[in-house]
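dumping these here so i dont lose them again. two proteins, back to back, each one seq then structure tokens. dont judge the mess
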Amino acid sequence: MKGTVDQIYQNTMAPVTEAVLSMSFGEGPHWDVEEQVLYYVNILDNSINKYNPATREKTCAEFDEHVSFIIPIEGKKDHFLGGMKRNIVEIEWNGENDTARVVRVVAEVDTDKPSNILNDGKADPRGRLVTGTLGFKSGSIGIDNIFRENGSIYRLDEDGQVHKLDDKITLANGLAWDTERKYFYYVDTMDAIRRYDYDIDTGNISNCQKIFVASEHGFKGHCDGMAIDTDGNLWVALFQSSKVIKIEGETGKLLQKVTIPTSEVTSVAFGGPNLDILYVTTANTRCKKNEPVWGAALYEVTGLGVKGLPALKAKIN
């Protein structure tokens, strides 16, 4: 269902947005239900980060190259799956200091496409990692310097086997699952939000349908990271639009928009004790690493009147 931005149904509650810390290019937020902390990555300083809302403290560890996602591994404390270039790696980090290390390379994808890198990743309802790739042309890294349809979506099973789920992806981004309706949602930032039929037993996807294109609703920006609430609605970051939007997963209908004080909104994750706080990562790609003020922030959005589905840990032998 298409419509303009002015034709959005507004939520009766007034959400409150608060900046809790600064960042340069936050991405991949993951709320750890057990620890009650938020993990995320920062692309510009090659770091993995942990934010504890109870103490308002942040810890981080840096690597020589950027990490595209960080997901805790189930049953293996202080161990995470991360994406580095085309490698899915296991990282060890206690989250309390700046010392982290890559334990091993679990798998490599897109071996025939050396310009490609991994981007967003999440664990599916059975703990299988799903992640995607994109390819940059030579020169500067930017949204306008990406090869068309050069990426793919991959699934990493618990036994370490990698399966390609779909290809001809331009900019692999947000992911979400609705197990009740048996859907898998995926964002190709340069194309559309896609909905697939999802087989929870096998992890296979089929029947791709494009359900939402940002430009068709009057937005100038691009869909980026994504989360899902208990009603099956999608909450999507709009890069270069200062917005998070709520979309009905079944129909693609635009339901609500939430204004964020930073233009480059990158991703979202539900967190908090009741999973009713929306954490929003943002970026300021004009900043340089040595600037003291990043110009972007991690935001908490409260008062949305919804609860999210919990993020799951990855399972890997």
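---- next one ----
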Amino acid sequence: MGMITRVRGRLRSLHTIQKLDPEMRDEKIAETVCLLSVLFLLPYCSRGHSPLLVSLGGWCVATYSFLVLPVLISANYKYPVRWLRKLFAKIPALLKKWSGPVWSFICRVYSPLDKCEKMFMKMTNLSNLATQLVFFMMCDRVLLCSLGGTNCPQKKVTGLYSLMFYNVIAYCVSYIKELIEKEDWSVTVNMTQHSNIKHVAMSATKIVLEWTKAITFIITVTFMLLVFGLEQGLEHYQPTPLYTFVTWTYYMCTEKVFIELFPPFLVFMRLKQLEALEALYAPVILRYYTVSVATILVIFLCFYGQVRFTSIAFYLTVYLRLKDMVANCLKNLRNEQALLGQFRHATNEEIENCDDVCAVCLSLMERARVTPCHHLFHASCLRQCLSASQNCPMCKREYTFVH
């Protein structure tokens, strides 16, 4: 009540404010705006965990906030109180003074952890396994239990079953890929590369290893067919189509055997916009997808109150993978794009005048880059030439760029 009385007194004395000098008048208006702001913000400061306006309904809260808060922000911005002006004037100087020492202190404290993170990400198999486990646990909590509307502890093993089945599929794919790419089918090993003398011990070891892999592959496939055919021990394994799609695509984007198949797939698609940088675009696209899906699941987990697990999941599946992407594959892609960015794209008329043929590979050109000496090449051919020399492969002149 005392504050309301003060506000009324301020409003009654507005006619006296007009008689003051401009500086005093602005100061009085600023004080009045400040008191009005406090008054209108009182409904948000009621006792308990929820604002006072919640009792009137969500639409009342939204309408009140939409109408009042922008007016208060704009009024305080136009008529700031004197002490706020002084405080805001000192903030840039304080930030400039303390930003350097504080940042150096943070870097020094974070340096040991940064080394551990880099070492962990270099251990690709271990980091991928840990990331996959945490991601599948997130899918269990969000896609099966939380979105299903029931608390189902028995469904939390679905992630382990799925990861096991996906690993079996990855092993089968890698073995079939090895058989397709295999060139030497001989069961013996020569003593040297140019000798016909057989190494008995190495030949016996090779035979045992090859037969072991073949028998393991057959047993694995047979076991999987029996499990899914008889459905024994799969009472609690009930994945939804959405769960299967999300987990399977994420597993493919993080497993080595499938990652190696993605660049050839991009090459097969023949996307002209990639300019023969499929090997550099592939890991970036895969990382963007995995980080985006993990971020969405982490956001959902934040609404279910699982703070500890959410923090671990965000750190492993979002922060570390995003950091590794920026430091490695995204950095390499940007370097190559910056290198090619020095050479502009050729127009259709320029390509036609060049007989539609690249001078390096003698293949037709649909897209090309133009050198400062006005020669046209494929982007991939130009990259290969730049890796060997900074001179034009046609006229042997050194590239000179005018900015």
